[in-house]
Give the backbone structure.
Amino acid sequence: MAVTTKLTWNEERSFQKLLGNVSLRLLYKSSVHGENTVEMQNRCRCQGPTVTVIYHSNNIFGIFMLGHSSEKSESFIEPNAFFFFSLQKNETMEMKTVVLNSTVTISYKTLIFNISSYDKRYLVLNFSKKCIDIAKVLEEELRVTCDLRSTHLECEVFRVAGIKDEGGYINRITRATQHRNRLLADVRAYSPYADLVSEIRILLLGPVGSGKSSFFNSVKSIFQGHLTRQAIVGSDVTSITEQYRIYSIKDGKNGQSLPFMLCDSMGLDEREGVGLCVDDIPHLLKGCVPDRYEFSPQKPITPKHPTFITSPSLKDRIHCVAYVFDINSVDNLSSKMMAKLKQIQKEVINCGVAQVALLTKVNNCNEVLQDNFLKMNKTMISQSQIQKINKFLGIPLSRILVVENYASEREMDPLKDILILSALKQMFRAVDDFLEDFLLE
Ligand SMILES: Nc1nc2c(ncn2[C@@H]2O[C@H](COP(=O)(O)OP(=O)(O)O)[C@@H](O)[C@H]2O)c(=O)[nH]1
Ligand SMILES: [Mg+2]
């Protein structure tokens, strides 16, 4: 009978994603091949990179190793470069990773992962006691708690085939995943300046097809943990989005609303009487336009409209405008479109609202940020599109944000997430400046 894995399809996909679209082949399964680490080692010898998966009641632990030695001994220490990750068995299946250069000690019934320099045990898999023991620091890093009394234990080892450039790739993707998780925690923990409002509102403005609706979908996907397409996107020359939408986003983890809303508008068109009407802008900014309002390009909203919000408060207002552009079309913006944008910006400045620029559709999202993921690369900054937006709209470089939205892909990507989450964080900073100013007034 074929030995089959306990991993669900989704779990397997998460692993493959983390490791870079690799293929996994089951080499060892404790309940079938025996709860014996020597047998496990025998089956993994000379197989190249492997991932050891330990199933615990609430979590799945993975340990990626670049290789196993060919030694045939019942107890030995093996230096290795590997990292740990955990997958919580909840809806969002968040994956946490830690990279450690350490050693493995294998004896008949135990498998011990140590940090070599400190001789510190990080994770012990003990088949005799049917338990795993995880060091506090690893628990903290992975943000899991492990109940040692739990006796339910299964261990599987997979051969990992198709890793791109082994050490380098794994290292980068692991650091990217860690950075992404930190950003995600920051965005979740954001609270607007002086608690003046509980949810800030970011208005997305820009030409038709610039990626406004896709940006909302991308942000939502990150917090849902899988790709979603709530807002309709399209590639028509006229705007697909005709309704004003004020989207609030729920945190998939606890279902609570996140502290920001994204306001998706009709696209701008260089022609007069087509696309979003400039006269609608002041009303949008002040918070007079309700959710689901049907834009009409030739007829801006007026206080007579039945759903017009006559006395909006600070919470209804727009706190930040993001001018959204397809980075590939910035160099070709027509003079008419630029004039319209200038007109709009005048209204935004009049209202004192914070401004950022969001450039979408970068196809080299791998190269946008410096190696530490904190700042934009010098070559990116010197690109004509960034320079143009900087000069044309007078938006500082730190407020020009570059993203690659989720468009046609099927899987989440930590690098895309980093750009999107960093963009959100910068928007929050801009909003806080605005709110601080508001309080002073
Ligand atoms: N490759 C890529 N395509 C994108 C990106 N953002 C949006 N798109 C595509 O561009 C088209 C227009 O996007 P949409 O979100 O409807 O633009 P909107 O009119 O500004 O709301 C759609 O076909 C999207 O799939 C991106 O960052 N990268
Ligand atoms: Mg749209």
In short: The chain has two domains: 9-172, 193-440.
